[in-house]
Amino acid sequence: MDPRITRWAKTLVEYCLSVNPGDLVAINATPAAEELVAEVYRYTLRAGGHPVVNLGLPALREIALKEGSDEQLGWISPSERALVESLDARLLIQSETNTRQLSGVDPKRQAIVGAAGRALFRERAKRIDPADDRWCITLFPTDAYAQDAGMSRAEFAEFVYEACFLNSEDPAGRWREVSRQQQIFVDWLKDKKEARIIGQDTDIRLRFAGRIFRNSDGRRNFPSGELFTSPNEDSAEGHIRFTIPSVVNGHLVSDIRLTFEAGRVVEATAATGQEFLRDVLALDEGASRLGEFAIGNNFGIQRGIHNALFDEKIGGTIHLALGASYTECGGKNVSQTHWDITCDLRAEAGGGEIWVDDELLQKDGKFVLKF
Fold this sequence. Notes:
It contains eleven helices and 20 strands. By secondary structure, it is α+β, with helices and mostly antiparallel strands. The protein folds into two domains: 3-140, 3-Layer(aba) Sandwich (Thermophilic metalloprotease-like), CATH 3.40.1830; 174-367, no CATH class. The strands form four sheets. Strands 14-13-10-6-5-18-19-20 form an eight-stranded antiparallel sheet, with helices on one face. A five-stranded parallel sheet has the order 2-1-3-4-8, covered by helices on one side. Helix 1 (3-16) packs across helix 2 (34-46) and helix 7 packs across helix 8 (153-163). The longest helix is centred in the first third of the chain and has 21 residues, at 107-127.
């Protein structure tokens, strides 16, 4: 066993999920992540928790999406509902063996499945204190992710370990250090009202007055490293170019350019995936508005790999999400989608600036404001 797998599992159980004796812990993955699942299972037991493992078969999801009725796609099984209602913590290990498996499925059908799952967890959220909602998403290196990234599987595994600080003897300690550093910026952003992002083919303003910035420090996304909020829904004005490609539900979309007026997308183009982009924007009323504005702060991630869990965290980038807002940030936009798209502001990508209330916060991907 690679010791980094052991560190990974220990960090997920103790730092990310804070498993306590008696906790019911759901572990969701595919069989490709067996090594990590087994170690998470082991450390959950050591923490006194009760692990429940769900190893999903990707082929079944494809069959359901292609052959199920709308009613069947929106159906939640009694066992899944009972588990969600009683669990204390949940872990999703992304571990696809074919990231393009669903590329032939209508986005509207995928949205039905997503909406049913979100509704289930919204019901759960009404019954618990938000501080008690413990969940985490991570990614296990498979051949499919490595191919998307243009790496061998061994190279990609090293990329993942470095991004997650798993080469450190104390990954949790490194993430606590990131949390302290990011909190300085979160505190500074409190009571700020507006941001302007300037870059290559980009000049956009958005407001976040009355909204809350959150410190994403590896507990819910692993890896993480970002500051995020939900902007005022009618505030986005201007245009932006996203030079880091995105893969969503099997669809590759690259060189996305969006123009906003009064918070809504009024023009949208993409060099690849134009039809999919337009389909997503037409999903519902909220899909063409922003649900998130965030600043990437993980400088252990140096390049895009066609996976939002990593790409949106790249140090020196910002990302915007089309669709659903975060209620924890004060957001009010409702949508079946939440699509994170990354804009590179680093010098090697042409450079850019982030201004907040007329103060320069970041230039060419580096923070310049002194505290």
